[in-house]
Amino acid sequence: MTDRGVQSESPLERAMAGDRDGFAELVETHQHEVYTLALRLTRDPHLAGDVAQEAFIRAWRALPKFRGDAKFGTWVHRITVNTAWTLRQRAGRHQHDELDETTPVVAAPFGDPEAVGEQLELRAQLEAALDRLPVGQRAVVVLKDVYDWSHEEIADSLDISVSASKVRLHRAHLRLRRVLAATEEGDEQ
Q1: Cβ-based neighbour number of residue 25 at 10 Å
Q2: In whole angstroms, what is the distance from residue 89 CA to residue 142 CA?
Q3: Better-scored residue on pLDDT, 93 or 7
Q4: How far apart are CA 185 and CA 189, in angstroms?
Q5: Which domains does the chain have, with CATH numbers?
Q6: Do 85 and 168 touch, CB atoms closer than 8 A?
Q7: Residue 122 has what pLDDT?
Q8: Residue 3 has pLDDT above 60, yes or no
Q9: Could you tell me the pTM of the whole model?
Q10: Which of 93, 121, 178, 185 is most exposed, with minimal Cβ within 10 Å?
């Protein structure tokens, strides 16, 4: 006979009580998001895998301190950002990797081949421009523009001030505009 109280607990509640199976369910639910965020921040598929794994290890260790002020997914995203930041600094160099076949591509409406081609070209230009940003600026752009985090959340995650977050975003946007404009000018010549 099973205990009904245990069955009604969420995976998070079970994990917080030390149940590894409950935590495994949380990992399964959030692993794709965590890896994708890590990949966007590091631009390196191998480092992103390390970041995702380390982020979940850190989450497991810190789970007793989880207060529930935010959703588990938001909390583990913050851990992922901090982990990516730490591991990226340890890597000590900026890599320029091409997109691989695991990078999702959003299909153009109605499957128009020309629109798909344009979208792929624009995506490649944007990815190349993001690669040219310093890692701190790229992190702010990804967190603000892709994940829609507030500047307060970004500042907290990156251990910088809100003002620094805003300045980095502004400078990153200016740099992206210059890089993309130069790319367009090169295409027209």
Answers
A1: 16
A2: 17
A3: 7
A4: 7
A5: 9-92 (1.10.1740.10), 112-189 (1.10.10.10)
A6: no
A7: 79
A8: no
A9: 0.68
A10: 93
